[in-house]
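Q: Given only this backbone (92 positions), what sequence would you predict?
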């Protein structure tokens, strides 16, 4: 890849301040409650938190991934779950 990686600048939750373990534990825990994947939880969070201002375009290399991503539109996270995810990027 040529040039600087600018994708991290657009992330709603700053992964620089957040250990990946905390993120994955939270996402997989919420996913388990819903019988979903952590990717679906992430997409649902983006749609619910930023749906009016952000267009979510997940990539898919297989048809199954596209179906999984589309299913995230039916996943509704609770206010508590949304707050847990949002709180991951807040400074202590």
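A: Predicted residues:
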């Amino acid at each position: 890849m040529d040039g600087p990686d600018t994708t991290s600048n657009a992330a709603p939750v700053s992964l620089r301040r957040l250990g990946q373990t905390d993120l994955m534990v939270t996402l997989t825990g919420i996913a388990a409650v819903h019988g979903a994947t952590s990717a679906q939880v992430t997409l649902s969070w983006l749609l619910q938190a930023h749906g009016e201002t952000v267009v979510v375009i997940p990539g898919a290399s297989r048809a199954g991934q596209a179906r999984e991503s589309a299913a995230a539109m039916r996943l509704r996270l609770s206010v508590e779950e949304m707050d847990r995810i949002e709180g991951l990027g807040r400074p202590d």
